[in-house]
Design goal:
Strand order of the largest sheet: 2-3-4-1-5
CATH superfamily of the largest domain: P-loop containing nucleotide triphosphate hydrolases
Helix content: 40-55%
Number of domains: 2
CATH class of the largest domain: Alpha Beta
Distance between the termini: 37 Å
Shape: elongated
Structural class: alpha/beta
CATH architecture of the largest domain: 3-Layer(aba) Sandwich
CATH topology of the largest domain: Rossmann fold
Number of helices: 14
Largest sheet: 5 strands, parallel
Radius of gyration: 22 Å
Number of strands: 5
Length: about 300
């Protein structure tokens, strides 16, 4: 017997008997859709992570406008590399670590953020040089394979000397641990590495563009639709819906996702059970009426 929800993934179809409020809440659960814009970047990072460690580890510089999916890329890599808790025989394994460069103006702050990412609790008791040694020691014990440095363009907001010191700290981590770096930033990210041309030469630049009305968008929308607990097919990948989505969101991934979630919630609450053009437009300003906090409790 064919399922009435053949347009949905199996985990999503299993949600269809939930009460309306719980289905609405499930719409807003964070989900990651693997799509062509990002899968080859993930493959590139995993290649850097697991190839034999070299004398001059390489990096990947991924730039794009706000909302293009850079944070989603970082989250996907962290989720794919499951951390192993510490035991009597070995320390905790943390193959991927993440920190942000915003307001990081010197090496001491870089190593402080690395210690925070490693979960070290007694940072304030360490001097600058001691923080460096402890961060490198713990990262090595954790078998760090990839360091993700977000908002790399923010080094441009500091003095030339501070830029130099911050980038030297990043290079120090790469050299000392023989670990690659994934640097994320806006369109100005390439300029951020100009203060250290030696470091810049190690990074391959890539871009995460805004979405266009093409087959890449169609594939993404069809995959995303299968995760929304709606009883009817919305045909988000149709040409008319793609044109509307690009027009309304300017092709920004974060805005596309936010709008689809709100439109899906409105469709459940209103009994439409599919995302229509009208609901997508309404979702620009209108929020669902379900009390998400009450459902969570």
């Amino acid at each position: 017997m064919n399922s009435p929800y053949s347009h949905l993934s199996e985990p999503t179809a299993n949600l269809m008997d939930l009460p309306i409020a719980q289905r609405v809440r499930s719409v807003f659960v964070e989900r990651f859709i693997y799509h062509e814009h990002i899968t080859d970047l993930i493959s590139h990072c995993e290649h850097m992570m697991y190839k034999p460690r070299g004398v001059r580890p390489k990096g990947l510089l991924v730039s794009g406008p706000s909302g293009a999916g850079k944070t989603a890329l970082a989250d996907a890599l962290i989720r794919r590399c499951v951390m192993k808790e510490a035991s009597r025989e070995r320390p905790a394994n943390r193959p991927v670590l993440y920190f942000c460069m915003s307001n990081a103006r010197e090496a001491k702050e870089i190593f402080t953020r690395l210690l925070v990412a490693l979960g070290f609790p007694h940072i304030s008791s360490l001097t600058g040089s001691a923080r460096r040694l402890m961060a490198l020691k713990l990262a090595e014990e954790a078998d760090l394979r990839l360091l993700i440095v977000d908002e790399i363009q923010d080094v441009l907001l500091t003095t030339p000397r501070q830029q130099e010191l911050a980038l030297l700290a990043v290079k120090d981590i790469m050299n000392s641990l023989k670990v690659p770096v994934l640097a994320l930033g806006t369109e100005n990210a390439r300029c951020a590495l100009e203060a250290d041309l030696h470091l810049k030469s190690r990074f391959q630049p890539r871009e995460l563009p805004t979405w266009r009305c093409d087959d890449y968008l169609r594939h993404f929308l069809e995959a995303y639709e299968s995760t929304l607990p709606l009883k009817k097919r919305s045909n988000l990948g149709s040409l008319l819906m793609r044109k509307l989505i690009i027009k309304e969101t300017n092709g920004q991934l974060s805005e596309i996702v936010d709008r689809l979630q709100r439109a899906a919630a409105l469709a459940i609450e209103g009994g439409h059970e599919q995302i229509t053009r009208e609901l997508f437009e309404r979702a620009r300003f209108e929020l669902p009426s379900s009390d998400l906090a009450e459902v969570a409790a």
